[in-house]
Amino acid sequence: MTMLLGQALRVGRHELRNRVVSPPMERNYGTTDGRVTDRYVAYLRARAAGGAALVFTEATYVRADGRGRVRQLGAHGDHVIDGMRVLADAVHAEGALLGVELNHAGRVGDPAVCGFQPVAPSPVPFRGRRPRELATAEIGELVDAFAAAARRCADAGVDVLEIHAAHGYLIHQFLSPRTNRRADRYGDPALFLTEVLRSVRRSAPRATVFLRLSAFEGVPDGLDADATLAVTARLPGELVDALDISAGCYEAGEWMVPPGEIDRGVLAPYAARFRQFGKPVGVAGRITTGDTAEAILRSGAADLVAVGRAQHADPRWTATTLAGAHPRPCIGCNQGCIDSLHTQQPIWCVANPGTGREHLAAAPPVPSRRVLVVGAGVAGLEAARSAALAGHAVSLWEAEPMIGGAFRLAAALASKPEFARLLDWYAAELVRLRVDLRLSTRADATTVARLAPDIVVAAAGATGVRPPIPGADHPRVRDLDDWLRHPSTGERVIVWGADRAGLAVADAAATAGYRTTVISAGAELAPEAGPREKALMVRRLTGDPHVEIRLGTTLEAVEEHRLLLGHGGGRQWTEMPGTVVVCQGGTPRHLDIGTGPWQVVDVREWPHPVRWPQP
Questions:
Q1: Residue 612 pLDDT > 80, yes or no?
Q2: Beta strand spans in 278-360 (E)
Q3: 169 is catalytic
Q4: Distance (Å, rounded) from C-alpha 596 to C-alpha 47?
Q5: What's the chain's average pLDDT?
Q6: pLDDT band, residue 611 (cuts 50/70/90)
Q7: Any idea where the NADH:flavin oxidoreductase/NADH oxidase N-terminal domain is (predicted)?
């Protein structure tokens, strides 16, 4: 059967070569004054070359006070036009259309980033910051800013303009009763968006116009699905060529970028309700596989699928899927692709180390060598794959009977249901690339010398750290990896450490029905993890009456049925029978293979520092 996913579709003035859209994703790849960079061009070019029909920039700010990220792309001044034209030419050269999403952050803007006090329809605080309420006359100036930004994009050769009326940004703030409490005419939730649509149409009459909406906000006092449909019905539909359906707002971020434990295609039933407006409909929301995308299209819920994180993980997702093969999977971790933005860093990808590096020159070819990779965790798997792709003869040794290392343990957790897909993909890649995989094989001086490699890549992982406290060697004190392989049979688990791994283990223990206590010297659960990665786990743990969380607390000693805890400068013995699971980070394992003619390279440095022997 021919995939509907590969069929062309005409929307507005343009024909899309298939039904796959690379949707707006904030990337932080621009300059500090909003210009396009070589990195940005290379990133979007790769997704266009990979087969997407329409590739979007990120939420692109129309005025300086609407910027939300340090290196966010802007359409706020004529200085951005030349770079945007280069971007359009690059995307067009690969057969795709370029879209720009026009946006203003409104109340969710950060003065530390944009240098302005945030503005909003009403002074409803956000994260402790109170925005300034816009005067009536100022709202007209913002309408003009959207129009001017649309004109700049049109001058640069942009094909599609998307008006961002979702995710709790400025336009959405006018739509929602929780953020629009005005008494003037702009108390009408549809008025500001209507004026923006009219102004954009006048400024860019040849552009195709998409309208992005949150089907619901996801918070109790926000717009639900019925209310969103009602306000959409009041908009001038003749000014819109397509509806792009997402969900959520900053206070319900799990709907904006759903983590892996949310069902694939979760928003399709909501998108189907927007069919009533007679426009082509696109939908986002955990569309990570070709089967999911095809099922959505064949159900009639949507005409287009917004495949964001999956194309972030594999720029050739579209072409690979349409060819009936399996692209490198998105694992739904929300670490590099979204949570890095909260620290104002450029986005990256846990599943693909090449993402965000498309602009870097390829390494020069080198003579084929025999490469031994020791350790088949994800780092070792990637090292073996990259070496094989470069034409080297590759052996991959793993001491355990399965690939994956600690990542495989994480993949068994209910909160990480997509992780196993990455291991399955790597296993298939090893077969395709004819990597010599040897499981249950330890590397030592004798075995390595027998293979006689030119390069040894050390990817043996890390061992857990057990702080030296009295009783740390007690039988009921167990390392994280050991407990995940063989969970305890008691009713209580004490998780010692609340980093990313500790949080996941505590969540797994509580979900399995253990009475769970979390002990951490820090003031926050998993401080190194971003809000989107940990939101659902934190919510479950803090809402579970059988979970006790003790922050700012140290574990000082362990005895048979009690623990010595330190808190606030004091120490106290506490009766706490159960298994203590140590989650205190790790140290790299030492690879003891003696010396030889081979060069040893740490996997974290592979392949750049390798001193390849010359023929």
A1: no
A2: 281-283, 304-306
A3: yes
A4: 44
A5: 95
A6: low
A7: 9-320
Rounded CA-CA distance 291/153 in Å is 35
CATH class of 370-461+590-605: alpha beta
Going by C-alpha positions, the residue among 375, 421, 407 that lies closest to residue 589 is 375
The domain 23-309 having CATH identifier 3.20.20.70: the answer here is yes
DSSP H or E run through 141 = helix 136-155
- Find the radius of gyration of the CA atoms of the chain: 26
Centre a 10 Å sphere on the Cβ of residue 433 and count the other Cβ atoms it contains: 14
Query: pTM of this prediction?
Result: 0.95
Domain ranges of the chain: 23-309, 370-461+590-605, 464-587
| Over residues 540-561, mean pLDDT | 96
Residue 579 φ/ψ region, left for φ over 0, alpha for ψ in the -120 to 50 degree band, beta for the rest: beta
Distance CA 515, CA 491 (A): 6
Residues 424-456 pLDDT 10s: 999 999 999 999 999 999 999 999 999 999 999
Is residue 39 within 8 A of residue 359, CB to CB? The reply is: yes
Give the span between the Cα atoms of 389 and 357, in whole angstroms: 17
3-state DSSP assignment of residue 214: strand
State pLDDT tens for residues 147-186: 999 999 999 999 999 999 999 999 999 999 999 999 999 9
So what's the pLDDT on residue 1? 66
3-state secondary structure of 38: helix
- φ, ψ of residue 4 in degrees (nearest 5): -60, -30
Total Cβ atoms within 10 A of residue 83 = 20
CB 53 within 8 A of CB 28: no
The stretch 288-307 carries a mean pLDDT of 98
Q: Is the dihedral of CA 524, 526, 527, 530 positive or negative?
A: negative
State the average pLDDT over residues 581-598: 86
Query: At the top level of CATH, which class does the domain 464-587 belong to?
Result: alpha beta
Q: Kindly state the percentage of the chain with pLDDT values over 90.
A: 90
Output DSSP code: residue 387. H
The token duo for 498 is 């609340």
Backbone angles phi, psi at 15, to 5 degrees: -105, 130
Alpha helices in 497-599 (DSSP H): 500-511, 531-542
Nearest in space to 72 (alpha carbons), one of 141, 23, 25: 25
DSSP of 55-98, one letter per residue? EEEEEEESSGGG--STT--B-SSGGGHHHHHHHHHHHHHTT-EE
Peptide bond into 607 cis (omega under 30): yes
Strand locations in 431-476, DSSP E? Answer: 436-438, 455-458, 462-464
Q: What dihedral angle (degrees, nearest 10) is formed by the CA atoms of 378, 383, 387, 389?
A: 40
For 86, phi then psi, to 5°, come to -60, -40
Sign of CA dihedral 267, 272, 277, 283: positive
What are the residues whose beta carbons fall under 8 Å from the beta carbon of 322, sequence distance 6 or more? 3, 5, 6, 18, 51, 290
The candidate with the shortest Cα–Cα distance to 583, out of 491, 505, 515, is 505
DSSP bridge partners of 558: 563
Q: Which of 298, 303, 286 is nearest to 54 (CA)?
A: 303
CA 222 to CA 179: how far, in whole Å? 8
Sign of CA dihedral 325, 331, 332, 336: negative
Q: Cβ(294)–Cβ(300) under 8 Å?
A: no
Query: Which range, of 8-22, 239-253, 408-422, 587-601, averages the lowest pLDDT?
Result: 587-601
